[in-house]
Write a structure and sequence with these properties.
The chain is mostly beta strands. It is about 10% helix and about 45% strand. The C terminus is likely disordered.
């Protein structure tokens, strides 16, 4: 019994499973393997989220810090590739509509943005470690645009829109037994003709940079003309008058019920009251409306600046033109006042838009000693003013940065056709017959970084550049080169992006950008058209309903 009991206990003991030995080596190894794996995965996730990547060069593994690319495109639904591959990490910021691509290795990368029905945008850009490379304005050009015809604008010599681009006036000269100038005035919204102004023995004399001027109220026009005037020949009878062409300007209303018009030469005295010398009417130039008044016109004649108060009522008596400054080369208006340049090169400004009060000297342009009317002044404000000599195309700029106390007066280029400041006053766009430039007026620390008083050549063409104009973002310009319209970005990083918008069947300067409504106007002629007519496209994109979506 005892023996059997012992045997049973021993047998039961031998049949029980063995308990593991405390802290064996295998358990320790397993624990540390799992712990290290967790640490490695956690660190990898953290480093990847912070923008670090592993790089292997010459069999050496290193941990590098990456950069990122941010862009805002139009349209929004696009495909982006970097070095031919679609990036995996891309986040949308719903507030400003930008996309953010992270984890991009430092160095040069080929970036391409494309969408169905659009021409691609591509650049080779440099990405730097820990820095986001921003492209805030990437408008894609459509493969083909749907054009809107404006058949009421037929065969315009040149198109002149009102300030809000709601109305259009354009000259048509018809030569038969009598020379007659016709100026149709069109409402752009419905294409109706408000009026067709006509002037006999008159031709349009739109010299370069002389426009049909709309009054601030958009009710009256100033039209540059050349008209035939009867003048008596000395030693002959009064019946032997001959007609000679005279440069002139006509002021008229667009109201079809009004028959009001007046020629400036008929208001001027025949002799200068100060010197009693005959006035040279061919010296008339720079005829402009007062920017805030619809009854005041400024112009230059024989080197003097005149102010003319007119009433556009039919039966009113015209006031005589008043001389307000002498030895004037040019003048211009800006939002903050009136600016004039005299023959000695001195630049003056008046914040009250009148030379009789608040007149102060601003700077001196040493290269402006030209004849009256031979210089065009381009003023943004009292700190940013440029002028172009008409005979040589010398462009000189006065630029004062009050924030950083930097001031410069310098000649930028020669052979320049025209120049215009951007709406924010930070850039000056100018062009010659074969090159387009941009001058940076202020430092700009945001991307792309710009430095005060620097110039970049935007594009060049051997075919001749006839016109250049800003679009609404002031980071792109439209160039008119013969029969082609091109979009060029002024972001110089990775080279300038230039894309053809469309090619026309004619070549002229009738190209106007409505920056508020994103509409591009131009003239073109197709086989179905007897004459060139005005057309338009929505460009660069449709106007958004909500501002945040633009």
């Amino acid at each position: 019994m005892h023996k059997n009991g012992i045997m049973f206990v021993l047998k039961e003991a031998t049949m029980r499973p063995k308990r593991p030995t405390a802290n064996p080596l295998s358990r320790i190894i397993f624990f540390w393997v799992m712990a290290c794996s967790c640490i490695l995965v956690t660190c990898t996730v953290i480093f990847l989220s912070l923008g670090y990547r592993v790089s292997v060069t010459d069999n050496i593994m290193t941990l590098i810090y990456t950069g990122s690319i941010k862009y805002k495109s139009e349209p929004r639904d696009v495909t982006v590739t970097i070095d031919g591959r679609i990036p995996g990490a891309q986040r949308l910021n719903f507030i400003n509509g930008t996309y953010h691509i992270t984890g991009v290795r430092h160095g040069l990368h080929d970036v391409r943005i494309e969408a169905s029905g659009y021409k691609p945008w591509e650049k080779t850009v440099r990405v730097r470690s820990g820095i986001t490379t921003d492209f805030w304005n990437v408008p894609l050009v459509r493969e083909k645009y749907e054009q809107t015809r404006h058949p009421s604008v037929v065969a315009p010599q040149k198109t002149y829109f009102s300030a809000d681009l709601a109305f259009l006036a354009y000259p048509q000269t018809v030569t038969d037994d009598t020379q007659t100038l016709f100026v149709p005035v069109i409402s752009i919204a419905d294409g109706t003709a408000i009026n067709t102004l006509s002037f006999t023995d008159t031709a349009f004399a739109g010299a370069p940079h002389e426009n049909i001027e709309w009054s601030p109220s958009q009710e009256s026009l100033i039209i540059p003309v050349e008209r035939l005037v009867n003048e008596s020949i000395e030693n002959q009878s009064a019946n032997d008058d001959i007609s000679t062409p005279r440069k002139d300007y006509v002021i008229t209303r667009i109201d079809p019920e009004s028959e009001y018009y007046v020629y400036i030469s008929e208001i001027l005295p025949d002799f200068d009251p100060g010197t009693l010398k005959p006035l040279n009417f061919d010296s008339l130039s720079h005829v402009r409306w007062h920017p805030r008044r619809t009854d005041v016109v400024f112009f230059i004649a024989d080197g003097s600046l005149y102010e003319l108060t007119v009433s556009t009522e039919e039966d009113s008596v015209q006031e005589e033109a008043k001389k307000i400054a002498e030895n004037v080369v040019a003048y211009d208006f800006a939002d903050d006042g009136l600016y004039i340049l005299d023959q000695s090169g001195r630049l003056f400004g008046s914040s009250s838009f009148s030379l009789t009060e608040d007149l102060t000297e601003i700077t001196f342009f040493p290269s402006s000693k030209d004849q009256p009317g031979s210089v065009r002044l381009i003023a943004y404000d009292e700190n940013r003013i440029a002028h172009i000599t008409t005979n040589t195309g010398d462009l000189t700029v006065y630029n004062l940065d009050t924030t950083n106390e930097q001031e410069v007066t310098r000649r930028l280029e020669t052979g320049i056709i025209d120049a215009q400041f951007s709406d924010d006053g930070k850039k000056l766009l100018f062009y010659s017959s074969n090159k387009v430039f941009v001058y940076f007026v202020r430092d700009w620390i945001a991307q792309p970084q710009r430095d005060f008083n620097t110039i970049k050549e935007v594009t060049a063409s051997a075919n001749g550049i006839t016109s250049v104009l800003w679009i609404s973002d002031y980071e792109h310009v439209i160039t008119v080169i013969g029969d082609t319209l091109n979009l060029v970005g002024i972001d110089h990083r990775g080279g300038f992006q230039e894309t053809n918008i469309l090619t026309r069947n004619l070549a002229d300067q009738n190209v106007v950008m409505n920056k508020n409504d994103h509409i591009l106007y131009f003239t073109d002629k197709f086989d179905s058209d007897d004459f060139p007519i005005l057309r338009s496209i929505v460009f660069p994109f449709e106007k958004a309903t909500f501002p945040l979506l633009q």
